[in-house]
Amino acid sequence: MMHANEIEAIKSLLASPKKIAIIPHRNPDGDAMGSTLGLYHTLLQKQHDVVVIAPNEFPDFLAWLPGSENVLVFEKNTVKCTSLLESCDLIFTLDFNALHRTGEVMEKVLSTLPTTTIMIDHHQFPDTYANYTFSDTAYGSTCQMVYDFIYALGDENLLNKTVATCLYTGIVTDSGSFRFPKTSSATHQCVADLIDRGINNSQIHNLLFDNSSYNRLLLLGKALQNLKILNEYKTSYITLSQEELDTFGHQKGDTEGIVNYGLSINGIDFTAIFIENKEEGIIKISFRSQGDFDVNQFARKHFNGGGHINAAGGKSNASLAETVQQFIRILATEKK
């Protein structure tokens, strides 16, 4: 948790109504949207003027989250969002720790603002842009950090069903439904409290994971057909070309979680998915590992990315085929 003097300073900042923006990272996932909306509903109860500004669109499978209809998208309304950010008294950045994670244009705006900024995040190697930083890699989700942050402020009475629903969403998604190693007893104690505050955990799980379109299932089938195994490196990988995405009517969020299938194979401790994005001219990459193989360092070193020890992302400007060949060449030195 933050130092006591930082908490006291933030309490003072929040003691009177402020104009506040809350920002998740680009291509926001369940933890990014859950944490921002959870904090949003908390601060509204304290009579602040609050807005969530997402760098770009969030996936449809999160559109049921309470308050998601009020989220502004910077990419769609840059002028209005820039004006709002410039008028803010306080900015929270959640689930990321480097401004470039918001995208090139939004990063330029944020990096020039003199506004007091508070970072809450659980990724490695935080940048130093924030005035107040709550950064801790021991946490499995930013939502659990926001939960502890609310308690540290003495605002646990504001943890109503709406706030709890948002926070539970990020905890369940970023923990792989409580499977990943950073799921601690504190995680389960937090979730028990959220359930006691009225959330319908079964319904949330259904909305997140049992809500696929027919096309999404067909795309998953194609991805699994494309799965390759490199036994000598205990590694698997999946590719999806732009043509394959288009064939199955790909929507934002449709590829979420597919990478994990590659890690479910007996004897495999490292997996990747390579997704072609013609519009951005890049190959988007997600990495997952089990045990002590550090995919954060792997992504940083080779694919202009980063994240956690067992879950990270990156990108490549080469073609899909060239990127895969580069990946295989790197494995020969990194995973002998």
Descriptive report:
This protein is an alpha/beta fold and 336 residues long. It contains twelve helices and twelve strands. A six-stranded parallel sheet has the order 3-2-1-4-5-6, with helices on both faces. A six-stranded mixed sheet has the order 7-8-9-10-12-11. It folds into two domains: 206 residues, inorganic pyrophosphatase (n-terminal core) (Alpha-Beta Complex); 121 residues, Roll (Diaminopimelate Epimerase, Chain A, domain 1), CATH 3.10.310.
Main attributes?
single chain; 336 residues; alpha/beta; inorganic pyrophosphatase (n-terminal core); Diaminopimelate Epimerase, Chain A, domain 1; six-stranded mixed beta sheet; 12 helices; 18% strand
Characterize the biggest β-sheet.
Answer: 6 strands, parallel
What is the number of strand segments? 12
From the alpha carbons, calculate the radius of gyration and give it in angstroms.
20 Å
Order of helices and strands: HEHEEHEHEEHHHHHEEHEEHEEH
CATH superfamily of the largest domain: inorganic pyrophosphatase (n-terminal core)
Q: How much strand content do the residues show?
A: 15-25%
Low-confidence stretches: none
Assigned CATH architecture of the largest domain = Alpha-Beta Complex
With strands numbered from the N-terminus, the spatial order across the biggest sheet is 3-2-1-4-5-6
Q: What structural class do the secondary elements suggest?
A: alpha/beta
Named CATH topology of the largest domain: inorganic pyrophosphatase (n-terminal core)
* First and last CA, distance: 39 Å
Number of helices: 12
Helix amount: 25-40%
The shape is globular
- Return the domain count: 2
Mean pLDDT: 96
CATH class of the largest domain: Alpha Beta
